[in-house]
Amino acid sequence: MRAPETTPAPTTEAVVHFYKSDAKIYARAVSGWFARWRWVAVWFTQILFYGLAWLPWNGRQAVLFDLGARRFYIFDLVLYPQDFIYLTGLLVVAAYSLFLFTAVAGRLWCGYACPQTVYTEIFMWVERHTEGDRMQRMKLDAAPWGPNKLLRKGSKQFIWLAIGLWTGFTFVGYFTPIRELWASALTLGFGPWETFWTLFYGFATYGNAGWMREQVCKYMCPYARFQGAMFDKDTLIIGYDTKRGEPRGTRGRKTDLAQANLGACIDCGLCVQVCPTGIDIRKGQQYECIGCAACIDVCDGVMDKMQYPRGLVRYDTERGLEQGLGKAQLLARMFRPRVLVYTIVLFLILAGLGTSLALRSPFRVDVERDRGSIARQVEDGWIENGYRMQVMNATERMQSYRIGVAGLPGSVVDLKGEVRVGPAETRWVPVAVRVPPEQAAALGSGSHAIEFVVERLPDSTAGDSSRVVSEKSTFLLPR
To answer: Do residue 368 and residue 299 come from a single domain?
Structure first.
């Protein structure tokens, strides 16, 4: 007998797209208290970035990372590759600052100081002044190509490219002295390294801020993805007061809300139109929200026109929106254990980093054995070992050093005079250490610990004091 045929269960296949192509966002211009603070951040960061490269200091650029010479100048600080630990400390400070600010007030960095936000704000300002505000830009994009459209679009792209290339030029100016770089630019004498990075950083700025915009925040930036793990119910976020705003709907200014069964939201949609990432804040907290507070400014303006109290969309916590907490209660919950731990750890790291910089020696010493001559007998039976000593001057003045040795009785350094090292320079000095024959016989063959003592001689004209650095090594006695 044949087994009865069974119909296979239908299978459904679903395609999941990790990237969703959305319609172009035409963000509307907005003014208000938070918009002004956003522009304060724009001006501050850009004056710092563009201006610091041109600031003179001690006859050089104030901030310069000279990779060729392996010197990093930050105002009065001269750092060597051996000072890499300070970069590690700086990164740890940045990480803990991010944890602290996110735990307290969400994505403040994204909304006000992130380079993507700052340059997008600048590029959108150029776009509004060349193509108009939201409705004008939408009509211009829908219109056929003509002289007016070509002029507006072309002028926008030209200004965008100029800003991007100047940004790339300034970035390279922190690694190649910017005045030398400017002279090379005027004569078209850029080297391949400078040309590549100027174009790369310039077009990255142009592409990210001009074309990709919200796509960078939504798909490329990892911070948007893991921020949810850094929030809690007492983190200050931008939220919509559902209890007060719903049910939403259109009405006149004199409409009795209780009689019409309406909330404070008039469903104008302006909060969506001003959002640079195109989200609707009324749908709750979303990872695309960068915390720029544009929706707060525009909603407060609508509330003023309707003669309603402000704050329908506001900075608040999830707990505050649910329970209707006041400002005093919000502040009390802000200083919770998590925030206090972040603050204490950040303070300790900053204190340790500052103390280390303050106590940092103005010079460094490294000692290597001379591999060409390990140990030898010289005149009068003395035993000599050869070394190569690297003296790194971390100041911007000529310095003099005296080299001595300790650890072996009777040992002397065969070096005539002082060692002079120029400003922010490194000098390799051949050094020979000798031990008298009677002392060598008493010690016996083998390896013996010694210590080089390098003293920086004081400079009365500069008000310097003496400073001593010790470096350990070994002295070999042959059989």
So the answer is: no
Closest to 87 in 3D by CA, of 358, 393, 353, 424:
353
CA distance linking residue 306 with residue 255, whole number of Å? 10
177: left (phi over 0), alpha (psi -120 to 50) or beta: beta
Domain tally for the chain? Answer: 2
Query: What value does the mean pLDDT take over residues 31-37?
Result: 93
Confidence of residue 306 (pLDDT cuts 50, 70, 90): very high
Count of other CB atoms within 10 angstroms of residue 201: 18
Tell me the HSE value of 64 on the side-chain side, using a 13 A CA sphere.
25
Encode pLDDT of 314-343 as tens digits.
999 988 888 888 888 888 888 888 889 989
The residue out of 273, 306, 325 marking a domain boundary is 325
Question: Could you write out the DSSP letters of every residue in 116-179?
Answer: HHHHHHHHHHHHHHHH-SHHHHHHHHHSPP-HHHHHHHHHHHHHHHHHHHHHHHHHHTTTTTHH
Q: Is pLDDT at 224 greater than 60 in this prediction?
A: yes
Cα torsion angle, 367, 372, 374, 375, sign: negative
pLDDT per position as a tens digit, 417-471: 788 998 888 899 999 999 998 888 888 888 888 999 999 888 755 556 668 889 9
Helices (H), 214-293: 214-215, 223-226, 242-245, 257-260, 270-273
Residue 467: in which H helix or E strand, if any? strand 467-477
Q: Give Cα 397 distance to the centre of its chain.
A: 31
Please report whether residue 332 resides in a domain: no
Mean of the per-residue pLDDT values for the chain? Answer: 88
CA atoms 58, 60, 63, 65: torsion sign: negative
- Alpha carbon of 384 to those of 370, 428, 434, 452, 477: distances in Å? 11, 19, 4, 15, 9
**CB contact at 8 A, 239 and 285:** yes
Given 268, 303, 325, the domain boundary residue is 325
> For 172-183, how does the pLDDT look when each residue is reduced to its tens digit (9 = 90+)?
999 999 999 999
Other C-beta atoms closer than 10 Å to the C-beta of 428 total: 11
Residue 14: pLDDT band (50, 70, 90) is low
Please report whether residue 256 resides in a domain: yes
* HEC profile of 56-108: EECCEECEEEECCCCEEEECCEEECHHHHHHHHHHHHHHHHHHHHHHHHHCCH
Better-scored residue on pLDDT, 301 or 4: 301
pLDDT digit string (tens) for 366-376? 998 887 777 88
Residue 274 lies in a domain: yes
Alpha helices by DSSP H, 176-317: 178-186, 192-206, 214-215, 223-226, 242-245, 257-260, 270-273, 294-306
- What pTM was computed for the model? 0.82
Structure-token match 């319609």, residue found:
23
Residue 288 lies in a domain: yes
